[in-house]
Amino acid sequence: MSDDKPRSVYALPNEELEQQSKPQSVSKPRTQKPELPAERFQHIKFLDCDKPVSRIIFECWHCFQGILCEYTGEPIRGEYKGRPSIIQIQVQCPNCEQTAIRLNTGEVLSTTAIPSPWKQ
Ligand SMILES: [Zn+2]
Fold it and tell me: Where is this region: Disordered (predicted)?
C-alpha cells in the first residue's frame, strides 16, 4: 500500500500558543526560597599535602572543636553496597567523641585538639 500524498502539516501559530499557556496570575508573590538541605559548611585547611605525612586542620562537625590531624597513605578502596568505593576514615573528636570528620586517606596517625583558628 502506497500513500504518497503530500501531507499537510499545520503548525499552530506560536503567538496563540504562548498566550494560552501563559499563567493567569503573574503577579503572584513568589514563594520563599526552600531551605537548603542540612549540609553545613565545615572549616577545613589542608597542610603539607605534598609530604608523606599530611596534616589537616578542621573544626569538629559537632562541637566546633579545632582539631589537627596527621594522616598518611592512599585511600583504601573497599566496597559499599556492592560497589567499589573509597573507604572514608572517621576521625573521632577528642572533645565530644563523635565523628568530627571523614577523610579519604589511608591512615590517621594522630588527632590533636587545638584552638580553632576560625574562632573569633
Ligand atoms: Zn567534637
Answer: 1-36
What is the grid cell recorded at 5? 500524498
Let me know if residue 90 belongs to a domain: yes
Q: pTM of the full predicted structure?
A: 0.63
Distance 101 CA to ligand 1 centre (A): 9
pLDDT in single tens digits along all 120 residues of the chain: 656 766 666 655 555 555 555 556 566 566 666 665 556 789 999 998 889 999 999 999 999 999 999 999 988 888 888 999 888 999 999 999 999 999 999 999 999 999 999 986
Question: How many domains is the chain built from?
Answer: 1
Rounded to the nearest whole angstrom, what is the distance from the C-alpha of residue 78 to the centroid of ligand 1?
A: 27
Asked if residue 67 belongs to a domain, the reply is: yes
d(CA 106, CA 8): 68
Cα 83 to ligand 1 centroid, rounded to whole Å? 31
